[in-house]
Amino acid sequence: MRSVWLVALVAFAICCQAELTIGTPRTIPGVVSVATDEISFSWSTNKAAFSSFTCTGAGTAINYPGGEASVLHNYSTAINFSSEGMVACKFSAVAGNESAELEFEFEVRCVGVRLGLSQDKLDAAAYFNRPKGSGPYVIVKQIGVENLCVGAAVTPRTTVSAPAAMRLAVSGGAVQSADYTQYGIDITVPDDTPEGNYTARVGFSANGSSVTLPISIIVKWPGPVLNITMPHFGNVKSGIPTVKGASVKEVMGYRAASNAKCVVRVSGQEPVETNLGGIAPFGKSACNVSVSPPGTGARPGTYGIQVAVSSDNAGSFGLEDNYTVPIPDAAISPSVLDFGDVTFEGGLTEAKAGLIVSEIGGYTPIEGIKFVVADGESGWLTLPDCVRVEAGSRVECVFVLRLPERAKLGEKKWKLTFSAAYVKNRTVEAVANIYFFGLEAAIDDLRAAGTYPAANRFPEFGDFARASIGFLSGLKGEEMGSAELVGAISVYGGARALLMQIDAANAAAGSGDYERASDELLGARFAREKITVGMSVGGRKLQSIADAAGLPGALESLWNASLGAIGNETALNAEEVGKTDYSKASAIYKNLADLFGNADYEARGQYFGDKANEAIGTAALHVAEGKGDLDSARGETVFVNRYRTVISPFSYDAVKAAYEKAAAHYESASAAYGLAGRANEKEIAGQAAEEIRAEAGQVGTAFFVILGGAVAFVGALIFQVATGMQRYAEDEEEESLGDVLVE
């Protein structure tokens, strides 16, 4: 309620006199209401004059311009009282050397109802932070409502005005005088409300007093949020790529994600980047994650997978997973390798038996299979060369039993150890039953052996075979004790082995395989000793039969002839072998030292053994230096579309030189490994050199493709400028020609 207080200030202005007069109020009220009151007054002068009006106390605020005037003035101004108390006012006027003042005071006291708010306006914001469709955003605010006058409590009536679709609820109770009561204001904003600035109003009224609270509401949508999910890889199969799709979704539903991309990093593989483009609100895209553990040399273990997704307006986030290369699971059957009955009968001195090795895990192959004779007589078994079983497959590993020259009758047992990479060692038992031969079959066996190719070189070869047959024929009809029987078996076995190994030594020497030739000669020496021991063990009876057949003399003649020819040929070629393979030369010389009892051969064997070790050291140094040069070259390159290229065009020559140095080091390492007799390491180093040169070629190709693109761009630009200049000149020429024709 606005109350008005009128104060009459009567100014007695006399025309044509230069007097300044200010009237006094007729009445000064003692109490006024707290409201915006008006004070009216007048003053006059007949010349220029200046006036001012001020009031102090009770929180007054007035608006009186003052200034110069020369006529009679009637003036009203509003005074706002914000609190109770005494008010003192003063009016002053100055005209020339005259001045006049009027002072008065009154009391201000609140009467009735006057509503007030704790703040002039209310700011609210709905920043949506949940997926669209999850429900509205509710803004909870409070405002203090007060009755500024002394009196009884009142309960204001409330009115609301809100934007369409929004709901605005007001809650509160009675308002005490001179004390704020908190009113709750709940604003419900639907989650499909467009972004923008909105306004609402809440009105409070009671007993003629009313106030309005303006509300500013900001509605802000969240930015896009991407989420990625992917099935867990778990166990994967070596050598076969396993691909799973990573699903990328926008989960807020308000804005599209722009320029999204997915980068997949799998341990041990090159990163793969996929451009996903834009992803609509609640839309989805996908990128594939491919895991490819090698089919050969896969190392069991758990390896990391990182999928990183980024967008221009959705930020970056990642997902981590892993895959497992399981340890291969091996099964071996049967548990006993049974060769059955083996005899010295012709054609029956060899038996075969197989073990089935299965990989039953189904994920990782069994590699590096080795069988070792852990217990039992040596020289009997030829171990299989199976080294690998594919995941989920099976391989039969075949063992060959050949009766050695020192074989004894009876049951034989061996313990074999099975081992492979990452697989627990297993033990397998092997058994065979060795029994005596029939003389006729043995004679047929030696008769066939006497026709081996070595007989064409050594006449002594056939002589010894015939002497051995004569020895066996002399046994017919003889009664023999156990010692004589063992001696006869030893002579037969040694004779047969001697013929076979001299023939094998001759063939190896003929093909240039002098290491094998020396090995076979060592075997022949053992066979010779077995014959000698057999004749000795058999006593006088066997010795006399052997002498009658001429066996001792034929034995020495064949041994001396073969050792003299093959052994000396091997010795003559050992140095030549040493030029390309230190390890083989060392083995040859050591065998020759055993055969001839020659200290010089022993020394040469040691010499080439040391050279082999030295070559291995040299190769290792070249590998280390090659790796350093390769790291240096790669340090100056980057991946562009999964291909390496140089970082700076000015470093191209240096990178090329570093690649070449690395390849040269690996080639040197390959040569050194070859000299050391390490065929596998030689092949690996040689292959590394080829791969380095291939990578260097790829870097060069990528570099010149990029450089060619830049040159082509500049060339095209120059061509366009030149073409434009030419056209401009032609236009100028045509214009000049036109001028001439016009004239």
Labels describing this entry:
743 residues; alpha+beta; five-stranded mixed beta sheet; 10 helices; 37 strands; 35% helix; disordered N terminus; disordered C terminus
Q: Work out the strand percent.
A: 25-35%
Distance between the termini: 95 Å
Write down the overall mean pLDDT: 80
Radius of gyration: 57 Å
- Helix segment tally: 10
Q: Could you list the spans in which at least 5 consecutive residues all have pLDDT below 50?
A: 1-18, 24-31, 710-719, 721-726, 732-743
Instruction: List the strand order in the largest sheet.
Output: 2-9-8-4-6
Structural class: alpha+beta
How much helix is in the residues? 25-40%
Shape: rod-shaped
The biggest beta sheet reads: 5 strands, mixed
- Overall number of strands: 37
Task: Provide an overview of this structure.
The chain is an alpha+beta fold. It is rod-shaped, with a radius of gyration of 57 Å. It starts with 20 loop residues before the first strand and ends with a helix.
Write the layout of secondary structure elements.
Blueprint: E1 21-22, E2 31-32, E3 36-44, E4 49-56, E5 60-62, E6 67-69, E7 73-81, E8 85-95, E9 98-108, E10 115-117, E11 122-127, E12 137-147, E13 157-161, E14 167-171, E15 181-189, E16 196-206, E17 209-220, E18 226-229, E19 234-235, E20 242-250, E21 257-266, E22 272-279, E23 284-291, E24 301-311, E25 315-325, E26 330-333, E27 336-343, E28 350-359, E29 366-367, E30 370-375, E31 381-382, E32 388-389, E33 394-402, E34 410-420, E35 423-435, H1 439-449, H2 459-474, H3 482-510, H4 514-537, H5 539-549, H6 551-578, H7 582-596, H8 599-635, E36 637-640, E37 643-646, H9 652-675, H10 679-742
Parallel strand pairs: 2-9, 11-17, 19-25, 27-35
Antiparallel strand pairs: 1-3, 3-7, 4-6, 4-8, 5-7, 8-9, 10-12, 12-15, 13-16, 14-15, 16-17, 18-20, 20-23, 21-22, 21-24, 24-25, 26-28, 28-33, 29-32, 30-34, 31-33, 34-35, 36-37
